[in-house]
Amino acid sequence: MTTEAAARRMPGAPCWVSLLAHSLSATQEFYGALFGWEFRPGPQHFGPYARAFLDGLEVAGVGELAADRNLPVAWTTYLASDDADATAEQIRCCGGTVGVGPLDADDAGRMAIGSDPQGAIFGIWQGKSMPGTAVSGEPGTPVWNELVTQETESVVPFYEHVFGFEPEAVVSADFDYLTLHIKGKPVAGIHGVGNALPRDRGPHWMTYFAVSDTDAAARRVTALGGRVLRPARDSAHGRLATVADSEGAVFTITQQH
């Protein structure tokens, strides 16, 4: 499931992940201890924001919610765009919603926050330089992004038309899953989970972070004040666990083969 850094430059591909939390300092402490991230100040247009680095390379962003904004604490997957304004218009034309932007993020690029017709929230990033995450595949880096929704059939046309994804079904009698390709490269997935979709979250994009040892990382999450939502389990792509940080933001950790 590793997404190469080069693939992240392609329009449509996931290129960045960002978290909005209530306490920036507590969130930095949690992820610094879990993944070894170091933090530097980022664009402050929308409130306190920091960029996370691993071995000097940028891997993610963390922002602080304004006290009066009643938004869920969640990781947001950003999809690369050559033209954020044109992509926003396509989102609207194809039945989605644009809730924020498009607007400039200092001099780094242009961004927007949208949602698909089923309500799953994602970001759009038009970078003036190489967009987003500079390294992938190493422990502590995002390695996969996956839309978790009720069923794939109703939502895949939206992502095909807006982002140019080429869907490829994973053939299984009891597994509704599509891999999304751009120029032949797998860049993301859509997982239809039916009635197993969490009622408190609805359709959502899930970020997968690499770890060197899933079981040890899951124990570390708990020790740091987070929770294990789905215990460590083996899959075709490695050993996975679904966890939540100390404020409830959900993500998946994966120890790859």
What does it look like?
- There is one protein chain.
- With 257 residues, this protein is of the alpha+beta class.
- The protein has two domains: 7-127, 2,3-Dihydroxybiphenyl 1,2-Dioxygenase, domain 1; 142-255, 2,3-Dihydroxybiphenyl 1,2-Dioxygenase, domain 1.
- The chain has four helices and 16 strands.
- It has helices at 24-35, 84-93, 156-163, 214-223; strands spanning 14-21, 38-41, 49-54, 57-64, 74-80, 97-105, 109-115, 121-127, 142-149, 166-169, 176-182, 185-192, 204-210, 227-235, 238-244, 250-255.
- An eight-stranded mixed beta sheet has the order 2-3-4-1-5-8-7-6, with helices on one face. It has an eight-stranded mixed beta sheet with strand order 10-11-12-9-13-16-15-14, with helices on one face.
- A hairpin with a 2-residue loop joins strand 14 (227-235) and strand 15 (238-244).
- The model is unreliable at 1-5 (pLDDT under 50).
CATH superfamily caption of the largest domain: 2,3-Dihydroxybiphenyl 1,2-Dioxygenase, domain 1
Would you identify the CATH architecture of the largest domain? Answer: Roll
Low-confidence segments: 1-5
Mean pLDDT: 89
Biggest β-sheet strands, sense, barrel: 8 strands, mixed
In total, the number of strands is 16
Number of helices: 4
Strand order of the largest sheet: 2-3-4-1-5-8-7-6
Please give the CATH class of the largest domain.
Alpha Beta
Category by helix and strand content: alpha+beta
Percentage of residues assigned to helices: 10-25%
Oligomer: single chain
- What number of structural domains do the residues give? 2
Report, as a whole number of angstroms, the end-to-end distance: 10 Å
What shape does the CA trace take? globular
Q: Give, in order, the helices and strands.
A: EHEEEEHEEEEHEEEEHEEE
The percent range for strand residues is: 35-45%
Rg calc: 17 Å
**Which fold name is given in CATH as the topology of the largest domain?**
2,3-Dihydroxybiphenyl 1,2-Dioxygenase, domain 1
Protein name: VOC domain-containing protein
InterPro entries: Anthracycline_SecMetBiosynth, Glyas_Bleomycin-R_OHBP_Dase, Glyas_Fos-R_dOase_dom, VOC_core
Pfam families: Glyoxalase
Domain VOC: 13-127, 141-256
